[in-house]
Structures are given as C-alpha cells and as structure tokens.
Design goal:
GO terms for molecular function: transferase activity. The chain has about 375 residues and is of the alpha+beta class. The chain folds into two domains: about 160 residues, Gcn5-related N-acetyltransferase (GNAT) (Aminopeptidase); about 200 residues, no CATH class. It contains 13 helices and twelve strands. The protein has a twelve-stranded mixed beta sheet, with helices on both faces. α4 runs antiparallel to α13, α8 packs across α11 and α9 crosses α10.
C-alpha cells in the first residue's frame, strides 16, 4: 500500500499521524462478502436484509447483493427507497414552492408503481452497500455472460447496477447500453476533475485548511480500528446521516466500520482532539483513479463555528490530491461543493429485466422516459 506524502495542500499548523503507512488498494470482494455471510447483513447495516455472494465478470470479482422484495430498507439495497421513500422524505427538507404538490403526486405514483413491480426483488451487481459504488477497473468485461448466469439463477429478480455514469465509468456505461440495460436517472452528483487545478487553489479550500490548522485537531490515517474508535466513528456517522438527514441512509454498526477498514473497503481518516477523542471521520474509497467518501461523520453537538464539516470535507480532498485521484463527491451539498471546484453530472441505476414478464418489464421504460423528460432537466437547471 502506498503511503501518503506531504503536499502543498497540507495546512502548516496541522498535525498528521500515520499508522502503518496506509494508502489505498482495491477492496477485497471475497473478504467483504465472507464477512457479510458470516455475520449477516442486518448485524452490519441495521436497515439492510440481504444475501451476499461473489461473482466473476471478465476476471473481476464482484460482490452481488440479493434482496427479496422487502420495503423500507436503505436505498443502498432497495431501489424503491431510492426512487420513492427517499424523495418523499426530501420533500420536507426542500422548498419547492408551487412544485411541491405535483412533485408529491409524482412520488406517490412512483411509490405505488414500484411496489406493484416488486422492484426490490433484485440482484445487485458490484454493490458494496455504499452510497456510491465505484466500479474501479471493471469496464463491462464479461457482462453478458454474468447477466445470463444471474438471470438463470434468479429468474424472478431484476438485475441492477448502481452508480453508473459517463464520468466515473464511461466504458461500463457504454457496455450496459450495448447489452440492452435500461438506465434510470437517479441522482445529481458532484465531481472534480483535477484537484490541483480545481480544488486546491480555491479560497474556500484554503480557508478550510486554515480552520483545521487552527483547530488543534490531529489528523490520523487509521490502519486498525479499535472497538472504542469503531463505536465512536459509527456514532459520529449516525449523528450526521441518520439523525440529521434520513433513516433511509445505511445504518452502519461499529462492526461495519471495522470490516470496512480491515478488508480495504475504505481508507479511514480521523481528526482527534487533545484528549484523543475522534471529532470527525471520513471513509474514502479509491478505485480506478477516483476517490469518493461514502462515510463521513462529525460531532454535530459541537458549535458550527468549529467547522467540523469543512474539516471533514477537506480531509477527503486532501487525500485525493495527495494520491493524484479525481474526486466523486456523491450527491447533496451542491453549493458547498461547487464553491470547492466541483461540477455536476447525472448518476444512473442500470436495470435489466428482459427475462421477466412484460408486466414487470415495460412499466420501467415509462419510468425511465418520465425521469429523463421531467427530472433530468430540473437537475441540469440546478447545475447552472
């Protein structure tokens, strides 16, 4: 694993502590799935109930998550939650003005239709139970053979691949289109092409770095997560993503945090106070020349003037810059990310249903068309 080397982005007064010369490698799919099988998904992610297996595609080992239709799980394992329950929850957080009533009606219609299609009965390929599943060096090799194999083994399930877009995985996206998969628009995501050019030079980024330098916090790249630290990281994550945002976000346990570090699912960076207490933590996935942070947490009970969200975000950008990676900023906090050099793209969920009855297949085409016609232009308008 490659160690992190100082670069000009590091604030001069900040302290960095490295444990075991951490860096990044591709996560181990077999170990990840083995842990899920041994402990059970529910013990690791409280709002996910699924089976897990490893499949090969063109020499790439891929984790496959199989769900049997339950409603109400986290969107990382339930497309119904991604397209109905989560948007419904967001209606209470966003001021849409006169659009609120038609948006609510559209979400209610999508809710009913997706339930009738049993959309959560699905086989989800290369799904790491993260908000963003980077696909690394898999460019779609062996896709058709994998599709045929899984459709034969699970004849009543949809086949899904999340986090598909023309920015992070253009070859895979093209392969999916060529193999007849339907691409449903899913999210507006924020991406940074060149951290040195687009991120490090920003005044807001330099201010974030100064905030860290003035905080007295010590940044540590964690190679081994103790039980106490795992509990703290899980609690910080829950303060932000579960308590503040939505219970439909994955509800990770302390054991999940340890699994993620041990099997290389993500690289963990934390910021500790003078007593050694973790005040902010980020889990960074790095695959195929791209970094993303599907896990972030900080002590939301601290005053906003402490700038812990800014510090946590800076830790992600700093990692990507040091490693020479592009940055996939996932969804949300668009204005904050734009100020730090990000631009917008559209993220898709790929679905294959040719092996299913027409009654479960054809309505998806209507949903995809409606999303492209109504949702995508709205999202693109927000990009400007």
């Amino acid at each position: 694993m490659r160690s992190l080397h100082p670069m000009t982005s590091q604030p001069p007064a900040a302290q960095f502590k490295q444990a075991g010369a951490p860096g990044w490698t591709d996560p181990d799919a077999a170990e990840f799935v083995g842990r899920l099988q041994a402990l059970g998904s529910h013990a690791l992610v409280a709002n996910v109930e699924a089976q897990a297996l490893v499949e090969q595609a063109g020499g790439h080992p891929l984790p496959v998550i199989v769900t049997d239709g339950a409603i109400g799980m986290s969107y990382v394992a339930a497309p119904h939650s991604a397209y109905a329950l989560y948007p419904r929850a967001e209606l209470d957080l966003v001021d849409l003005g006169w659009m609120r009533i038609p948006a609510g009606a559209a979400i209610a219609a999508a809710d009913r239709l997706l339930r009738s299609l049993d959309i959560n009965r699905a086989v989800q390929i290369d799904n790491w139970l993260l908000s963003t599943c980077l696909h690394g060096d898999w460019k779609g090799e062996g896709l058709a053979e994998l599709r045929q194999r899984l459709a034969a083994r699970f004849p009543g399930h949809y086949l899904l691949i999340r986090s598909v877009d023309d920015w992070s995985c253009p070859e895979l996206t093209a392969a999916l289109r060529g193999d007849g998969w339907l691409l449903l628009p899913c999210r507006q995501i924020w991406v940074t092409d060149d951290l040195e050019r687009d991120w490090a030079v920003r005044k807001s980024v330099k201010n974030d770095g100064r905030k860290l330098a003035q905080s007295g916090l010590v940044v540590e790249d964690v190679a081994r997560l103790t039980n106490a630290d795992a509990a703290r990281v899980a609690a910080l994550y829950a303060m932000l993503y579960i308590a503040k945002y939505s219970t439909l976000n994955p509800q990770y346990s302390p054991r999940w945090m340890q699994l993620a570090v041990e099997c290389g699912l993500f690289h963990l960076r934390v910021a500790r106070d003078a007593d050694g207490q973790i005040m902010a933590a980020v889990g960074i996935v790095a695959r195929g020349g791209i970094a993303t942070n599907p896990m972030m947490g900080y002590d939301t009970q601290r005053p906003q003037s402490d700038g812990l969200y800014r510090i946590a975000s800076w830790l992600v950008g700093d990692f990507a810059l040091r490693q020479g990676l592009r940055l996939h900023g996932s969804a949300g906090a668009g204005h904050f990310k734009q100020q730090r050099g990000a631009r917008s793209e559209i993220d898709y969920m790929a679905i294959h249903a040719a092996h299913l009855p027409a009654t479960r297949r054809w309505p998806l085409k209507g949903i995809a068309a409606a999303l492209e016609t109504l949702a995508v232009p709205q999202l693109k308008q927000r990009m400007l």
